[in-house]
Amino acid sequence: MRHLEEKECNRTRGCKPETEAKYRQALELYATTGLSYVEICRQCGISVSGFSRYIRTYHRHLMLKRNGITCSREDANRIGIGQRRGQRPETYAKYKEAIRACDSMEYIECNVSQIAREFGLSGTNLGKQLRLHYPEVLELREKTRQRLGLNDRLPRGTRPWCREQYARAVELLRADLYITVQEAADRCNVSYAGLEQHLIFYHKELVENRIKIRKRAVRQKYKGQITGRGTLHAPTPETVSKYAEALHLYRTTSMSARKIARQTEVTIKGFYDYLQTWHKELLSERKYNPATAGKYADAIVRLKKGDLTTAQVAAEFGLHPESFRQYLKVHEPELHAKLGMKKTADGKLVSPKSMEKYREAINLYRTTTESVKSLAGKFGFNDRSFIQFVKRQFPEAHEQHLKLLQHKKKAP
Question: Is residue 224 part of a domain?
Answer without folding.
Answer: no
